[in-house]
Amino acid sequence: MKGYSTREVARLLSMSEADVRGYVRAGFLAPERGPRKEMRFSFQDLVFLRTAGGLAEAGVKPRRIRRALSSLRGRMPDGRPMTAVRIAVDGDRIVVEEGDRRWQPESGQILFDFGGADLAPEAVPIVRRAFPDAPRDGADFSADDWYQWGCELERDAPDEAIEAYRRALALDASHADAHVNLGRLLHESGDPAGAAPHYEAALAARADDGTAAYNLGVAFEDLGQLPEALLAYEKATRLEPENADAHFNAATLAEKLGRSAEALRHLREYRKLTRR
């Protein structure tokens, strides 16, 4: 049967089997059950548990880890896994990084400076041990598996991450998170024209994706398509009214396009958000 047993997951992640079962009892994981009712954990489960373990290693107390993860789960859009974002520790705060936005899962407060230690890099060798044949074969990988593989490779092997996201989309062309991340990597490599269709595809698959709308605005702006960029930024502000960067960019473009009333409205919202 596909997947990993409780014992195998505990060994791979240097966690106790009791801790693994605890996250299942808390409702954070829903592993498949084998013929004898034994739990079988997926790639996404492995990444989630590594993140939780990283918080513990950073000195965060178990009760607070569960509270933060529970709050994060409640703030994620329906159908979007918690592994779609990165979690870090910044001083005594747990923070979430989602594209260019950083916020606290416990309060939802947006952060404007970020100096925390990302918990993801240590996951790469663990994932490679768990899935040694993925780069060569990956025949058993689902679209979500390829997406998670891409997430874990982004920092150290962005070219491999791009390929992983493409593999995910070959299996599921409507995988919004894979479109967003692939678009971002292409954009960061200097290809906004290649990135824009992926942001658009993410919005087609998930119309309430504020990150995709904001990133699409940046791509259009970099391409010199200012009216289209303004429309994308305005959509981002409707989907996520507290996205200060989207309001600022919309204000700047509205002013350039001679739409003074729109510029003033977005500038007011930006100032309101950044004075908190």
Provide structural commentary.
The chain is of the alpha+beta class. The chain is built from 13 helices and 7 strands. The strands form 2 sheets. Strands 6-5-4-3-7 form a 5-stranded antiparallel beta sheet, with no helix packed on it. Strands 1-2 form a two-stranded antiparallel ribbon. Strand 4 and strand 5 form a beta hairpin.
Beginning-to-end CA distance, first to last residue: 52 Å
- What is the CATH T-level topology of the largest domain? Serine Threonine Protein Phosphatase 5, Tetratricopeptide repeat
Our Rg estimate from Cα atoms comes to: 20 Å
The helix content, as a percent range, equals 55-70%
Query: What's the rounded overall pLDDT mean?
Result: 81
Return the string of H and E elements.
Answer: HHEEHHEEEEEHHHHHHHHH
Specify the overall morphology: globular
| Strands in their spatial order, largest beta sheet | 6-5-4-3-7
Query: Number of DSSP helices?
Result: 13
Q: CATH homologous superfamily of the largest domain - what is it? A: Tetratricopeptide repeat domain
Sketch the major β-sheet. 5 strands, antiparallel
CATH class of the largest domain: Mainly Alpha
The CATH architecture assignment of the largest domain turns out to be Alpha Horseshoe
Structural class based on helices, strands and sheet pairing: alpha+beta
